[in-house]
């Protein structure tokens, strides 16, 4: 591993960069999908906001004004309070 340090992330925000064309999503319907958010506790809401702010600051995600929407929830791990994951069920 010492010889290939450059191939490994130093932290969870070091995800690298792919040099390719942006993905194209081909829709099969004109129907807009916008699911309502799930009810969550104040504690979970604060954790989601904290993690989203960190992802925004790291440049991994960016603000969107898309008419499409999917609820956000936390997936829990033993070693961490929660890892942020986007759940989209159509």
Would you give an account of this structure?
- The protein is built from one helix and two strands.
- The chain is an alpha+beta fold and 90 residues long.
- The chain is flat, with a radius of gyration of 17 Å.
- The mean pLDDT is 80.
Could you list some keywords that capture this structure?
DNA/RNA_pol_sf, Retrovirus-related Pol polyprotein from transposon 412, 90 residues, alpha+beta, two-stranded antiparallel sheet
Amino-to-carboxy terminus distance? 42 Å
Strand order, sheet with most strands = 1-2
What coarse outline follows from CA principal-axis ratios? flat
- Percent range for β-strand residues: 5-15%
Proportion of residues in helical segments: 10-25%
Mean pLDDT equals 80
| Rg, alpha carbons | 17 Å
How many strands, which pairing sense, and closed or not: the largest β-sheet? 2 strands, antiparallel
| Oligomeric grouping of the chains | single chain
Number of helices: 1
Which regions are unreliable across 5 or more consecutive residues at pLDDT < 50? none
- Coarse structural class: alpha+beta
| SSE string | HEE
Task: Let me know the number of strands.
Answer: 2
Provide a quick synopsis of the model:
The protein has about 90 residues and is an alpha+beta fold. The chain has one helix at about 40-60, and strands spanning about 70-75, 85. The protein has a two-stranded antiparallel ribbon.
